[in-house]
Amino acid sequence: MNKTRIGYALAVIALIAVLGFLIAKTRAVNFDANTKVVATLRDLKQLDAEWNVDVLRSKTGLNNSYDPVASPLPLIDSLDSQLQNTTQAFFGTGSGDSERLEALLAAHKTAMDKKIALIEQFKSQNAILRNSSRFLPVAATDLIETVRAEPATSGTAQIEQSLNRVLTDAMSYALTPEEDLKARIEAGAQALQQQVEPMPEAVRERANTLVAHVNTILKQQQIGDGLLGELAVLPVASTIDALAEGYAQAHDQRLQTQQKYAQALMVYSVLLLLLLGYIGWRLFKSYRLLNSTHSALQKSNAELKESQVYMVQSEKMSALGQMVAGIAHEINTPLAYVKGTIDVLAEQLMPVKKLALRCQQFTESMRIPAGERDNTATKGQLLEVEELSNDLIKEGVLTDVETMLKDGVHGIEQISEIVLNLKNFSRLDRARVSEFGVQDGLESTLLLARNMLKNSVEIRKEFQAVPKIQCSPSQINQVFLNLISNAAQAMEGRAEKGLITLRTLPEGEDMVRVEVQDNGSGIPADVLPRIFDPFFTTKDIGKGTGMGLSISFKIIEQHGGKILVDSEPGSGTVFSILLPVRAKVEAAVLMDDQLEMA
Question: What is the pTM of this model?
Answer without folding.
Answer: 0.38
